Amino acid sequence: MIADVNLMFEENKIYGLLGRNGAGKSSLLNIMTNRIFASAGEVKIDSESVADNDSKLGLMYLMSEVDLYPNGSKLSQIVSDSELMYGGFDHQLADKLIEEFGIDMTQKFGKLSTGYNSIFKLILALCLPVKFVILDEPVLGLDANHREIFYSELLASYSENPRTFILATHLIEEIATIISDVIILDQGRIILNQPVEDVLARTHSVVGPKNDVESYTKGLNVVGHDNIGNIRANYVYGDLDDRRLPDTVQLSNFDLQKLFVFLTNQYEGGKHHEN
Amino acid sequence: MIADVNLMFEENKIYGLLGRNGAGKSSLLNIMTNRIFASAGEVKIDSESVADNDSKLGLMYLMSEVDLYPNGSKLSQIVSDSELMYGGFDHQLADKLIEEFGIDMTQKFGKLSTGYNSIFKLILALCLPVKFVILDEPVLGLDANHREIFYSELLASYSENPRTFILATHLIEEIATIISDVIILDQGRIILNQPVEDVLARTHSVVGPKNDVESYTKGLNVVGHDNIGNIRANYVYGDLDDRRLPDTVQLSNFDLQKLFVFLTNQYEGGKHHEN
User: Fold this and answer.
1) Contact B144 A265 (CB under 8 A)
2) What are the start and end residues of each CATH 3.40.50.300 domain in chain A?
3) pLDDT in tens, A55-87
4) Do B144 and A170 touch (CB under 8 A)?
5) Which of A25, A30, B67, B102 could form a disulfide with A35 if both were Cys (CB 3.0 to 4.6 A apart)?
6) What are the φ and ψ backbone dihedral angles of A92, each rounded to 5 degrees?
């Protein structure tokens, strides 16, 4: 269930849309692209409603786990059909990607493995002339080499032809250096929507003897902790005020995946605030 | 196709089995557990052949993408059936995992999402009394929080009850700190089989001005490189000999995923050795 979601995607940004299983990511993306209907609210591009507006819908491509292509069609045929439907296709980029990924375009869609099914849809997503490229679990089934090719080709294609990307994935650390903005969806609500840089600057891991760490972080927004013997790490998300740091205590930042786990961990949420 | 594979899994080790899509990982695991037959060669446990030997087959559990359970069965029923078949089940651990993962055991197997399908099979794998726990893509569809729970429960279960684990996964960096040994399968052949510690100690990234880096690494096993402006990074796998390091050049290690990509990258392989 999606509730009270109010989102605005700006031009030429690369968004990471993060959420736990069942948080509502796929529903949100399907509503945005008119594949399912919202019971309330609407989706607009340039202040025009998207619903039943083909010229606006044609500005978006959603690559998702749900397959919309006939199993019996050859990949090259699906490319031709999509080119007609969207009014264009970057064949030069496609040829490069086909060679890098080693995909055989004479194959039938229904015969693809999980990894190559993802790869084929990524090629469509990068080569169709859309303003919004929306990728739901883009690297499902891809091995490490193919994931590297995808991330680097996404950045190259973006810098050649800036447009808006929305990446929904569970592999948070792999996209942390690619995205400009991070959106966290939790139980159908947006709990974070900010530039990655700002988000990471607000993460603080405070490490040292337990008493010193606890007294230093008192009143701060402690979202998680670890204990290693007598050493305590408290993880703070937010400002540190101007309080004086004891010599025994060390400050650093922590990563986006760790922050995500802390902010969306319902079972652990209570525990982290104890003690 | 698997060819010339000669592997010995030792007791109480945690192996990472790595390979690209199509390298033969799943075939190998299916042969080991007698699900498909090898055209040549055999699988032994304690020097006894596994083929058609139920007492030996009962020592292994393979969790794979292929579902062996009836879609209409309740999860709790599959647990009871498996307990009978394998002669035991750790209900105490299972109850803990069921709560941590938040899985409803009254559901039917066929109704599970990709993530919960993986989670259910992981619970079976950790709680059945087998000597060899074999996990093919164990975290497929799991969000970051569930992956953390799985890795930490795997280590806890291993230290409580040491046995042999074999993890086949594309998420190499996530298991790099968990596994004791790494096996890399490439095009049906084993190209690496060593303790992780030894492997990482043989990785060297050599960074500095291009000429200095090239002359320092001449004759060494350079498996990859990067250029950033005038700065060159050559990635060496193997010994550095006793050659003198110029002051301008910096040495460090690189990670397992990077090594994997270099060693298994057929397209790039040639290029890395050029200049």
Assistant:
1) no
2) 14-195
3) 888 899 999 888 789 999 999 999 999 999 999
4) yes
5) A30
6) -65, -50
